[in-house]
Write a structure and sequence with these properties.
Layout (H helix, E strand, L loop, with lengths): L1 H13 E4 L2 E4 L13 H4 L2 E4 L1 H4 L10 H6 L1 H7 L3 E4 L3 E2 L11 E5 L6 H13 L3 E6 L9 H7 L11 E2 L2 E2 L5 E2 L13 E4 L4 E4 L14 H17 L3 E4 L40 H21 L4 E4 L4
Parallel strand pairs: 3-4, 4-7, 7-13, 13-14
Antiparallel strand pairs: 1-2, 5-6, 8-12, 9-10, 11-12
Helix pairs in contact: 8-9
The structure holds 2-acetamido-2-deoxy-beta-D-glucopyranose (NAG) (4 copies) and calcium ion (CA) (2 copies).
One 2-acetamido-2-deoxy-beta-D-glucopyranose binds next to loops.
GO molecular function, one term: alpha-1,4-glucosidase activity
GO biological process, one term: carbohydrate metabolic process
Protein name: alpha-glucosidase
C-alpha cells in the first residue's frame, strides 16, 4: 500500500509543463539510485489504433486521434507507446498482412499525420515503439507480385518450392507443414508451377529468411522508420522467421489425441520454428539498431516476443 502511494507521488513530480504541453521529465532510478533508460523504468503503453481514438467519425481509430490524446497519456504518466501496425494493408489479418512496410494505411491517415504524431510525442517526452512484422508480407505487396512473375531479385524473396508427385502422378505439396491457422502451409500458384509457404494465412506469404536481398530490404524498412525518428520496434513471434532449408522434410506427429485434421498442434514444429538463421538475422538487426543509437545519441530499443 505504502509502495503504491510513494509511486504515485514520484509520478506527479515528474509531470511538468513545457510550451503549453504537459511533459514528462527526469529519469527513473534503480535500487542503487542510478539513472535508468526509459525502457527500464517506464510502462510501455500499447495503442491499438483501430479502437483507440477516431478523429474523423468514420468509426475507425486513426493517427490524428492518437495525437489528440497525447496529453491524456502524459497525465497517466506514460513515457513510451507501443503502436500496433498502422502500415498499408488489405487487413486480412488486421494489419499484420502488410502491403507496403513504409507507408501508412489510409484508414489510419498519412505519413504526414504519422510525422506530426511523432513530433508531438517528442515534445512530450514520449518514446515511440513500432510493431514490425518481418515474417511475411501481404500477397498484395509489390514484392510478391514481382516474385510471382519470377522477376529478379524478387523471385527468391519468398519460399517457392517445386511440387512433389505421388504414385498416381498427383501433384502434392512438398511437405506436411501446417499453417498456424490450420490446413497446409503450402499454396500452389499456376504462374510459377510452384508452391509458396505461408505459416499464417495464404494471403500472408512467408519471406525467404535466407535471401540476402530480402534481408537487406527488411533492414531498409527498419532504417526507414529509424530515420523517421522512432525509438524502437516490437517484433512478435520471431520464431517463425526462418525454416529448415530442406522444404521436403516432414515434421513429426505430435501424437496429441482428438485434434481436428490440419490443426497446427498435430505436428512438432522444430523444422519451421526457431532456426539458427533467425537468430543470425536478429543479430544483424541488433547491429543496425546499435548504429542508429550511436547516430542519434538516443538509445534504440527492440522488444522481441519469443515463445518456445
Ligand atoms: C510504399 O510507400 C512509399 C511511401 O513511403 C512510396 O514511396 C512507395 O512508392 C510505396 N511502394 C509501393 C510499392 O507502393
Ligand atoms: C501485379 O501488379 C500489376 C500492376 O498492379 C497487376 O496488373 C497484376 O495483375 C499483378 N499481378 C498479380 C499476379 O497479382
Ligand atoms: C524434430 O523433432 C522430432 C520429434 O521430437 C525428432 O524426431 C526429430 O529428430 C527433430 N528434428 C530435428 C531436425 O531436430
Ligand atoms: C516476426 C513476425 O513477423 N511475426 C509475425 C508473424 O505473423 C503473425 C501473424 O500475422 C504476427 O502476429 C507476427 O507479428
Ligand atoms: Ca477514423
Ligand atoms: Ca517464415
Amino acid at each position: 500500500m505504502r509502495g503504491i502511494f510513494v509511486g504515485f507521488v514520484v509520478l506527479v513530480a515528474l509531470v511538468g509543463v513545457r510550451g503549453g504541453n504537459l511533459v514528462l521529465k527526469g529519469k527513473g532510478k534503480d535500487k542503487q539510485g542510478e539513472d535508468q533508460e526509459w525502457w527500464q523504468s517506464s510502462v510501455l503503453y500499447q495503442i491499438y489504433p483501430r479502437s483507440f481514438m477516431d478523429s474523423d467519425g468514420d468509426g475507425v481509430g486513426d493517427i490524428k486521434g492518437i495525437t489528440s490524446k497525447l496529453d491524456y497519456l502524459v497525465e497517466l504518466g506514460i513515457r513510451s507507446v507501443w503502436l500496433s501496425p498502422v502500415y498499408e494493408s488489405p487487413m486480412k489479418d488486421f494489419g499484420y498482412d502488410i502491403s507496403n512496410f513504409t507507408n501508412i494505411d489510409p484508414i489510419f491517415g498519412t505519413l504526414e499525420d504519422f510525422f506530426e504524431m511523432q513530433e508531438a510525442m517528442k515534445d512530450r517526452g514520449i518514446k515511440l515503439v513500432m510493431d514490425l512484422v518481418p515474417n511475411h508480407s501481404s500477397d498484395q505487396h509489390e514484392w510478391f507480385n514481382r516474385s510471382l512473375a519470377g522477376e529478379a531479385p524478387y523471385d527468391d524473396y519468398y519460399v517457392w518450392v517445386d511440387p512433389k508427385f505421388d504414385d498416381e502422378g498427383e501433384r502434392q505439396p512438398p511437405s506436411n507443414w501446417l499453417s498456424v491457422f490450420g490446413g497446409s502451409a503450402w499454396t500452389y500458384r499456376e504462374e510459377r508451377e510452384q508452391y509458396f509457404l505461408h505459416q499464417f494465412l495464404p494471403e500472408q506469404p512467408d519471406v525467404n529468411g535466407y535471401n540476402e536481398n530480402l534481408i537487406q530490404a527488411l533492414s531498409d524498412v527498419f532504417q526507414f522508420w529509424l530515420d523517421m525518428g522512432v525509438d524502437g520496434f516490437r517484433v512478435d513471434a520471431i520464431k517463425h522467421f526462418a525454416e529448415i532449408e530442406d522444404y521436403y522434410q516432414d515434421e513429426a506427429e505430435s501424437g496429441i489425441p482428438d485434434l481436428p485434421e490440419g490443426n497446427y498442434e498435430n505436428l512438432y514444429h522444430n523444422l519451421t520454428t526457431n532456426q539458427q538463421q533467425t537468430f543470425d538475422v536478429l543479430r544483424r538487426w541488433r547491429l543496425l539498431l546499435d548504429a542508429a543509437t550511436e547516430a542519434s545519441g538516443s538509445p534504440k530499443y527492440v522488444e522481441i516476443n519469443y515463445f518456445k
